[in-house]
Amino acid sequence: NAVVELTGVHKAYDLGEGRRVVALRGVDLTVGEGEFVAVTGPSGSGKSTLLAIAGLLTRPSAGEVRVDGQRVDELDDDARASLRNHAFGYLFPFAALWPSLTALENVLLPRVLAGTRTTDDATRALALLEEVGVAHLADRLPHQMSAGEQRRVALARALANRPRVLMADEPTANLDTDTAERVIERLARLPEEGTAVVAVTHDPHLAARADRVVRMVAGCVEAEG
Ligand code: ADP
Ligand code: ADP
Fold first, then answer.
1. Is ipTM beyond 0.85?
2. pTM > 0.90
3. Closest residue by CA, ligand 2 atom 24
4. Cα–Cα distance between 21 and 98 in angstroms, integer?
5. Rounded to an integer, what distance in angstroms lies between the CA atom of residue 7 and that of residue 72?
C-alpha cells in the first residue's frame, strides 16, 4: 500500500524575466506504508524539491501526487495544510524550535495545531523526549540547549502526531557522532511503528538502514537499490 505516490512529477522554479530552473524532470516515486526510503544524489539534483513536493510543502508544475491513493496536488491550501498537520512530520537540518516555548511545549505544539490534543499528551511528549535522551531538558527553552539537543527535540516534535510519513532533510547533518547515531536509531524504529520515512541524506550510516536508496541525478531518479 502506497502512502505517498508521485507520478511524472516535474517542477520548474520561475526566476522572473522568463527564466526558469527545472528541478525535477518526470519523477516517479512510491513510498510504501512503513517504508524507509533514503534519497541521495549530488547537490542541485532535486532532492529537497522532491521532499518538499512529496511532503505537500510545494506543488508540482506537472504530474500527480497521491497520499493514501487520493490526489492531493490539486487540493486547496487549507486541505493541504490540514494533511500536513495530520499525516506528515518534518525534520529539517536545523531545529526550527519555537524560541519562546520550552522543549516540552514545542513537542506539544503539533497536537495543538492539529486540534488533536488529549489529556495524556504531556506524558506522551515526555516519552518522545525520553526516546531521544532529552527528557531531562523538558523545561528548557531552545536557547538553553545545545544545537544537538535542539535537533533531538525537533525529532520528538516531528513524531508528536504519529505521522504516516516523516519527511527528513539531512537529519544527521552537523550532528556529533553520538547524536547522529541516536537520530538514526530512532528513525530506523519508525517503520515498525507504522511511520514511513523519506530521508534526504549524504550519510552512509543512515542510508545503510533504509529499505531502499533512491539516487537523484539532474532532476531524475537515476537508480534504486
Ligand atoms: P538538492 O536538494 O539535490 O540540492 P534542490 O531541490 O534544492 O536540489 O534544487 C534543485 C534545483 O532547483 C537546483 O538547480 C536549485 O538551484 C533549484 N532551486 C531549488 N529551490 C529553488 C527556488 N526556490 N528557486 C529557484 N530555484 C530553486
Ligand atoms: P503555506 O504557505 O503553503 O501554508 P507554510 O510556509 O505556512 O506553507 O508552511 C507549510 C507547512 O510546512 C506548515 O504547516 C508546517 O507544518 C510545515 N513547515 C514549514 N516549515 C517548517 C519548519 N521550519 N518547521 C516545521 N514545520 C515546517
1. no
2. no
3. 96
4. 33
5. 12
